Structure formats: structure tokens, C-alpha cells
Amino acid sequence: WETVHLGLLFDHSYKGPGLKVKKVLPGGPCHKSDSRIYEDEIILSVDGNLLNSPLARRQAFNRRMNQVVELEVKDPVDNVRVVSFEPIAFSKARELAKEAWISDNQGKVGELSGNKLGYLHVNRMNWDDLERFEAELFSIGYGKQGLVIDVRNNRGGFTADHMLKMLMRPVHAVTFPRSGKRSYPLGYLDHYFWDKPIVVLCNQNTASNGEIFCHAITASKRGKLVGVRTAGSVISIYTDEKFLDVGKMSVPFRGWFKARDGRDMERNGAVPDFEIWPKPGEVPAGKDRQLEKAVEVLLKECREFKDATLVELEPASARPDSVQKVEQKPSPPKQRQASEKKPKELTEEKETNP
């Protein structure tokens, strides 16, 4: 037995009876056509049991997985119907809620910036999230002037340097292919890259390798940080020490220090350029002042940005010194043809000689 999830988020300000749907998680069971439930509808009962108390609500969702649940649902015009489906695990619901939150943030950034900026979130510093980061640099960044990179609640990993390679590529040349436009051949690189402006969002739950990424962005002056100071928990560990059959122990083995001033990153979180703490009630209400500030800062960065690839290109054929000047020399004396007559003086001289 375990506590199952319906793939629904409820309005906690609603006093009852039942539960009022605030959000339907995309990809969840209530988002499917044959078991569709909509926002602002009321869940009256579960398997015939009324949801008229906190205890009844908890008991209703304590069941076996893969067991069909029947909900009595009332719409805003008081029509009642029964919806049946298999609920999902809380772990799956957390994944769906996170993806819905990311999608909402992408919509907010697009709305606040007039679709000039893109948004992407990095959940962890691991291979799967790195591959997603690289893919979204292209898919979300395409046609955008700047990107908001969100590492809030990122607990770390090991891929910060791989991400930095995609954001800080040395710009040494621009190419112009036949019948194309100025660019750089991606086949020459081991990663896709983004060299336009960025702003990084961080918070008190950004930890370990996520913090290393934030420190690097600040040290390299690649972009601004917005949010609150990161956790200050930067140290490499391994978990090979076993306690017989009761678990494992993590052992610290590598410290991280900032290259410019030698300060230990442990207990020394990355400090944002713009500190924004959420006010009570803002997060449940869906208001994100950190995200709003990131958009404001990034729009200003984009206006001031000078793209090195937009310099005026000067083909070799257009340079004044590209055509070699040939020095004009006097022509050599014209050779006489064999059939030409010799001068009269020379002919007469030969005739008078003995």
C-alpha cells in the first residue's frame, strides 16, 4: 500500500465540500481523453466515499498501485459524472509537476519579453540533463536574443564544465558558405554552443556542482546571477564505505576553491548580482519575482550586446591591396625581320671594301 496521486493539484483555499481542481498535470491520467478532468471542477467522492474531512481525503488515496479509482466529479454548472482510471505514484506526479512548472515558466518568459528570450531549466548536473541542456540550447534558443538558464533547486552532479564549454566557446573566426549566411560549421565542434547573452537563476537550494556552475558564470563575467545566495555545500564525495548490511557512508575527498581569491566554495555560496527573496504566499500563488527580474536584466543585456560575429566581413577580393600592381617597364627594341632590307649606308660600305 502507498499514497497514490491523481495527477491533479487542488485549490487549498477551497473550503469544500470535496476538492476543487486547480491544475491538471499534462501527461497525467486526468489529462487523457477518456478520463479527462478540468480545472475548477469538484471531486466529490472517491470510490463512493465522500471527501468531507481531512481524514477521509487521506484515506481515499491510500491504496495499492494499479488499482482503478472511481471519482465523482461535478462541473461548474453542477453536472455530475463518474471518471475511472489508474492513479500514478507520487514520484511520477513530481516529474509531471516539474515539467508543468518549466512549461509555465517558458510561457511567462515569452510573454514578459515579447518572445525575444528563451527559458530552460537544468534539474541536475548529470548526463541526461546535459543532453537535454544541449538540445534546448538549439531548440529553445533558436531565433532568441537571450536565454534565462534556471539552476534553482539543482542539487548538483558533475557536468558544470561541459555546460560551460557550450556557453564560452572561443570565437576566433566566422565562416560564410556559398549560397549561405554567416555562421560557424557545427561539425567542427564537439558541442552545440550559445554565445548570446544569458542570465542564470539560482537559489538557496542550488548546491554542489550547480553552485560551481554559478561561481564560474560570475568569475568569467559570462552573465548575471539573479535569485539568492546558493547553499554553500561544494565538496566532492564518494560512497564506497559500507556499514556491513545497513548502508553506505559518503566520504569527502576533494575541496573546491575559487581561482581568483582562493576562497573555499564550501560554506561560501555564489552571491547573485540581484538578490530577490520570494515573499510569503507568492510561490503557491504562482508569482515568481526572481524570474521577472531575470527577464528585466536579460532584456537590458541584449540591448547592450555586441555580437562579435556581426562585424562587417571583408572578402579578400574587396581589399584595395588585393590586386598586384605590375610595374610598367620600357619595351625592348624591336627585332628586325630577316626579310627587312639593311640600311643603305651599311650596304654601300660593304661594297667598297676590297
TrEMBL record:
Compartments (UniProt record): Cytoplasm
Cellular component annotations (GO), alphabetically ordered: cytoplasm
Region called Disordered, residue ranges: 313-354
CDD domains in the cross-refs: Peptidase_S41_TRI (cd07562)
Main location: cytoplasm
Biased composition (Basic and acidic residues): 337-354
GO molecular function, one term: serine-type peptidase activity
GO biological process: proteolysis
Alphabetic keyword roster: Cytoplasm, Hydrolase, Protease, Serine protease
Keyword Cytoplasm listed: yes
A Pfam family reported for this protein in Swiss-Prot or TrEMBL: Peptidase_S41
Domain Tail specific protease: 91-277
UniProt entry tagged with the keyword NAD: no
Family matches, as InterPro entries: ClpP/crotonase-like_dom_sf, PDZ_sf, Tail-specific_protease, Tricorn_protease
Assigned protein family: Belongs to the peptidase S41B family.
Protein name: Tail specific protease domain-containing protein
Phylogenetic placement of the source organism: unclassified sequences, metagenomes, ecological metagenomes
